[in-house]
Design goal:
Elements lengths: L2 H7 L2 H15 L4 H11 L5 E10 L5 E9 L2 E6 L28 H15 L7 H12 L9 H19 L3 H9 L5 E2 L1 E8 L12 E5 L6 H23 L19 H15 L6 E5 L6 E2 L2 E3 L12 E2 L1 H14 L2 E5 L7 H9 L4 E4 L7 H10 L4 E4 L1 H4 L2 H13 L3 E5 L9 H8 L3 E6 L4 H17 L4 E2 L8
Parallel strand pairs: 4-16, 5-15, 7-11, 11-12, 12-13, 13-14, 14-15
Antiparallel strand pairs: 1-2, 2-3, 5-6, 6-7, 8-9, 9-10
Helix pairs in contact: 2-3, 4-5, 4-6, 5-6, 6-7, 7-15, 8-9, 15-16
């Protein structure tokens, strides 16, 4: 083949001429670089390689990381993991070999990506998120992604989403908004974890988290400042009352003083808020995670205290009375999982009282069927979205749409096992979730999400709408 034939076959002369003309029109000071970039953009991007590996999450437990290659670059993502998994959520594939990482290894999920998923996706357009996710779902062939592993599918799905944004030359949150059909960008109110209990800490506190919501801030930047200042005032309060040992932290970075009652923890947080001077601007949220201490139809609030366990059983009615009392005494605006995941009756009744936002986590498990039932029965009024419970970006977008169509609130949530991936920050803005739960305002795997929200707010400028007082209505 002659040089001219080669040029003609690939239409190189025309493409080069177009690039040169574009450089002249742009009056670029570096025409060679401009022409190089112009030529690169003229080539449609496709997935050329998908490479997975096993890394460690914030708890020192293995998780899946993926490098997805296109002719525009390499895009990395990793799957988060929770302390517990539910019957109705997508399946996280673990090796089960007790001799390696105590059975928590993810080499099977990694191999599924490198040997099966990679082959299925090579050549696909990274902007076509729905097709990419559907290809993986079809390859898995199970209802809960148990064949390939939801941790495998999610890492690839997130990496593909990042590659799609790069191909369109837009920020990740804008690409997600486009996928969801949204045109506005709400920066969420952060639910900062300040006290950990339950499975997330080694103290005697039965409930899982006490959080603060800076709803009175005008911008996310101000909200982050409020959260940080309150967190450090709380450290001082705890040190004064319990000594330095009380300032050990749980898995989400919240303090874990050896307190045994929810009221004791709320009093500490209330005092810390008072010291900041932000009294009317900061509200409180609590994650009860009641499934963890439900025994039959009773709730054992002392289940973590061996000497007391069984002595403080409460019925569903007792729990409702306790929540009413707490909401009157403290600025509590949100309660997550106030009852067991199968205690639909008490969840329905408590939600009907309209005392506060009622968030479904274990109740819903981000499962569309559970969400639809909860909507029909009005068993809660807010979705807690954990992306690894659904398994792909497309399905996460769909469940958020489902929630918003029902006028529910939406909380985009971290997991106790996190990585330095900031994906959920962009997801929360792209879907205008209104609320994000990413842990304490400390620890790198938590702060990477909050710091990314700072950057997004800065990039959006006047277009950035901090959810603030409208945190449930975005």
């Amino acid at each position: 083949m002659s040089v001219q034939e080669y040029l003609d076959k690939h239409m190189l002369s025309r493409k080069i001429e177009d690039a040169v003309n574009a450089a002249v029109r742009a009056k670029t000071p570096d025409p060679v670089l401009f022409i190089s970039n112009h030529m690169r953009k003229s080539v449609p991007s496709v997935i050329t390689k998908v490479k997975a590996r096993q890394i460690l999450d914030s708890r020192g437990i293995p998780t899946v990381e993926v490098d997805l290659h296109t002719n525009k670059g390499v895009f990395r993502a990793s799957s988060p993991s929770g302390a517990s998994s539910g019957l109705y959520e997508a399946v996280e594939l673990r090796d089960g070999d007790k001799g390696t990482y105590l059975g928590k290894g993810v080499s099977r999920a990694v191999n599924n990506i490198n040997e099966k998923i990679s082959e299925a996706l090579i050549g696909m357009d990274p902007t076509l998120q729905v097709q990419i996710d559907q290809a993986m779902i079809d390859l898995d062939k199970t209802d809960k992604k148990g064949e390939l592993g939801a941790n495998a599918l999610l890492a690839v799905s997130m990496a593909a989403c990042k590659a799609g944004a790069a191909e369109k030359e837009v920020s990740l949150y804008k690409h997600i908004a486009d996928l969801a059909g949204r045109t506005t960008f709400n920066v969420p109110v952060p639910a900062f974890t300040v006290i950990n209990g339950g499975k997330h800490a080694g103290n005697n506190l039965s409930i899982q988290d006490i959080m603060i919501l800076p709803v009175g801030a005008l911008r996310f930047e101000e909200a982050l400042q409020m959260g940080s200042e309150t967190y450090h005032h709380l450290k001082a309060v705890i040190t004064e009352k319990y000594g330095l040992y009380g300032c050990n932290v749980g898995e989400d970075g919240g303090f874990a003083p050896n307190i045994s009652s929810l009221k004791e923890g709320l009093d500490l947080v209330k005092e810390a808020i008072g010291r900041t001077g932000y009294n009317e601007k900061i509200k409180i949220a609590i994650d009860i995670a009641a499934t963890e201490f439900c025994i039959g139809t009773k709730y054992d609030l002392d289940y973590k205290s061996p000497n007391k366990s069984g002595q403080n059983f409460k019925s569903g009615e007792d729990m409702i009375a306790m929540y009413k009392e707490l909401c009157e005494a403290y600025p509590i605006v949100s309660i997550e999982d106030p009852f067991d995941k199968e205690d639909w009756e008490h969840s329905k009744y408590f939600t009907s009282l309209g005392i506060c936002q009622v968030v479904g986590d274990d109740l819903l498990m981000s499962n569309p069927k559970r969400i639809e039932r909860a909507m029909q029965e009005a068993a809660c009024n807010t979705l807690l979205l954990k992306v690894n419970q659904v398994g792909t970006v497309t399905e996460a977008i769909e469940v958020v749409k489902l929630a918003k169509d029902a006028n529910w609130g939406v909380v985009i949530s971290q997991r106790s096992g996190e990585s330095e991936d900031s994906f959920i920050a962009d997801l929360s803005v792209g879907l205008s979730a209104g609320q994000i739960k990413a842990g304490a305002p400390c620890r790198g795997e938590r702060l990477v999400k909050y710091n990314q929200l700072l950057r997004i707010e800065e990039e959006l400028g006047d277009q950035a709408l901090y959810a603030g007082d409208d945190w449930r209505n975005c």
